[in-house]
Amino acid sequence: MKNYILSIFNDLSNKLDYLQNQSILLEVPKNTGHGDLSCNIAMILSKQLKKSPREVAEEIISSLKYSDNIINDIKIAGHGFINFYFTDSFSSKIINEILEQGDNFGKTKIYAGKKANVEFVSANPTGPLTVGHGRNAVVGDTLANLLSWVGYKVDREYYFNNAGRQMRVLGDSVKLRYLELLGEKITFPEDYYQGEYIKDIAQKLIDEKGDTLKKDDPDGNFKEKAENEIFDDIKTTLSNLKIHHDIFYNEKQLYDDGKIKNLLNELKYKKLSYEKDGAVWFKITELGGEQDKVIVKATGEPTYRLPDIAYHITKFERGYDLIVDLFGSDHNATYPDVLAGLKANGKNTEKIKIIIHQFVTILENGQIVKMSTRKANFITLDELTEEVGSDVVRYFFNMRDVSSHMNFDLSLAKTQSDENPVFYLQYAHARICSILNMIKDEKLKVSTDHLELLVKNEEKLLIKKLRQFKEEIELSARLFETHRICTYLEELATHFHKFYTFCRILGSEKNLAEARIALATATKTVIKNGLQILGVSAPEKM
RNA sequence: GCGCCCGUAGCUCAAUUGGAUAGAGCAACAGCCUUCUAAGCUGUAGGUUAGUGGUUCGAGUCCACUCGGGCGUACCA
Questions:
Q1: Which of A272, A318, A530, A542 has its CA at 20 to 30 Å from residue A227's CA atom?
Q2: Interface predicted TM-score (ipTM) over 0.85
Q3: pLDDT tens column, A496-540
Q4: Nucleotides of chain B within 7 Å of a protein C-beta?
Q5: Top-level class of domain A2-86
Q6: Where are the domains of chain A?
Q7: Cβ neighbourhood burial of A184 (10 Å; 0-12, 13-18, 19+)
C-alpha cells in the first residue's frame, strides 16, 4: 500500500515541480486515529516554499489523484501531517494474500541471488559455552534466518583456533588432572582451567588409555582429546538451541594455505609494515588508525590480528556479498584493525557489517554472577536450556536490542518462566489452532467471500497489524535487528487476544463466522512465520 | 587518561531512525470464566526520558559538556 501512495505522488510530481526530486517518506502512525499511513512532506517543504505546512498540505492533497476503491480519506492533521485512510475492502485483501502464501508469507526476494556469511559464536574450544555466549549464539542464528527470509543465501560460520597459548594451557591442565587422578601429587596453577570438565576429560583418557600417557607431551594427546571433547560438547549445546553451523573454519588452515605468508608479504611490499624491536608492526596510522600494532611478535609468532585479517580476506574470496560478524563488546577494539587490514588489501569494507552486542549481566538471587571460563565460575548455556527450554532461551536473547546492556535474573527465569512473553505469543497460536479444530464439527470453513463483514474495531486493528509484517521483516533485516520481530509479534498477539475476547466465531452468523475464521487463520500463519524466524516453536496446544 | 556502548514508570525493556498525547510486560490496586484454552481480557495508578545547554517547524533520538554504569585500551584471543 505504500507503493500505491508513492505512485500517486510520482504522478503528481509532474504537476507540482517542487516534488520532483523529493523523496517521500511514509510511516505508520503510532496513534491509530491518524490513519494507515502518514506523510511529513508538507512540513519539510514548508520552509523552502515559504508557506505554512498546512497550506502546502492543502495544495498537495487537492492535486492528488487516487482511486476511491483504495483510499477512503486523506486528512491534514497536527502541524501538517498528511494522513491516508484506506478503505476496509482494500485493507482486508491482506487476508487473501496471507492465506495464499501460507508458510512463505513474509518472505521477499529483495536480496535474491546474493550470498551472505554470518559468523557467530566462534568461541575457542577451551570450555563449555556459558550463558554469556548465549546472546551471541541466538542472535547470530536468528540474524541468519532473517537474512534468508529477505532472499540471501546464507552460510553460518564458526571460526576457531586450536593453537596458541590458551590451548596449550588447556592441554597442560588436562595432563595435570590426568596425573592427579593416577595418584600423583601435583600443584595446579591458579591461572589454569579450574573446571570440573577438565577432570572428566582426564578420566576419559584414563578409561581409554590407562596410564600409558604419563610421559606424553601435553600438547599432543591431551590437548587433542580436550579439543574434541569440548567441541562435541559445544556442538551439542548449540544443537539443543537448534543452531547448526554450515562451516567450521580453523585458523590453522590460513597457515596451511599460505594465506598468512601472502598477507605478510603484501603488507611489506606495500610498505604498510616495518620491523622494530624484533617484531613486525602493521602501519595502521598510515590507514587512519590511532597507533601501529604488532602483527608478528619477536618470538616469530603472529598476533591474532594477522590471521583475523587473512581470515576475512577469505570471506571476500569466497564470494560473499554480505559479511556479518557478531562480536561481544570485548572485541570492540579489535575490529578496526581488521577493517584497516582489509582496506590495505583493497577490499570493499562496505560489504562487512560488524555487530557488537553488549554483555548480559547475569544475576542470581539479586547478585551479579561474574563469568570466567578459566576460573570455572560459570553457568553453562546447556544448564539454562535444560532448565527453561530452548524457546525461552531463544526468545529471551532475541527480544532486546543488541546494544542494550540487559540483565538476566536466573532465579527469575527458573521460577517465573510463565511470565516470559514467549508464552503469550505461543498461547495466541494455540488458541487459534484450538478454534480451527472446533469448527470442523460446526460445518464452517475458511472463507474470504465476506471479509466486508469484519467491521469491529478489534478486527480492523488486527488486519492492520497483519499488513505490517512484511515491512517489519524488511526493516529488521536491513537494520540487523532481531528484537523488532519480537516487538511486532507481541503487538500482533495483543490484537489477536482482544479480537478473540470480543469477536466470537461460534454462534455468529455463518458468513461473519467464516470471515473471522479467515482472519484467525491468517493471524496464525503470521505468528507461526514470525516464530519461525526466531527459531521458536509454535505449539498447537498448551 | 583515551575509545566504543548504555542511562526511559518500583523492576525488565520498547519507541517506525528527527514526528503527533513517550508505550508494553512484570509488580500494585479494582473488575471479567453456565458459550471457541483465564498462560487471556477490561480499568486504575505509576514519567522533569540521569542533568545542563545547543541545533529546528518538532529532540528520548542529533551536537557539546557534566554525572553514573558496562567493555576495551597487550609482542593475550
A1: A318
A2: yes
A3: 999 999 999 999 999 999 999 999 999 999 999 999 999 999 999
A4: 3-7, 11-17, 19-21, 23-27, 35-42, 56-58, 69-77
A5: alpha beta
A6: 2-86, 420-534
A7: exposed
Cβ-Cβ contacts under 8 Å for A314 (sequence gap 6 or more): A249, A254, A259
First and final CA of chain A: distance in angstroms?
Answer: 36
Distance of CA A183 to the CA centre of its chain: 49
Contacts of A454 (CB under 8 A, 6+ apart): A88, A92, A460, A463, A515, A516, A519
Which chain A residues 40-59 have CB under 7 A to strand B?
40, 43-44, 46-47, 53
- One fold for both A2-86 and A420-534? no
Which amino acid belongs to residue A318? R
Q: What is the mean pLDDT of chain A?
A: 92
pLDDT one-digit tens code per residue, A362-381? 888 777 888 777 877 788 99
Q: Indicate the burial class of A190 (C-beta count within 10 angstroms; 0-12, 13-18, 19 or more).
A: exposed
CA A490, C1' B18: Å apart?
26
Q: Which strands, in side-by-side order, build the sheet including A361-364? A: A367-369, A361-364, A407-409
Distance A319 CA to B69 C1' (A): 42
Fold assignment, A420-534: Isoleucyl-tRNA Synthetase; Domain 1 (1.10.730)
- Tell which residue, A427, A426, A425, A436, has the closest CA to residue A505: A436
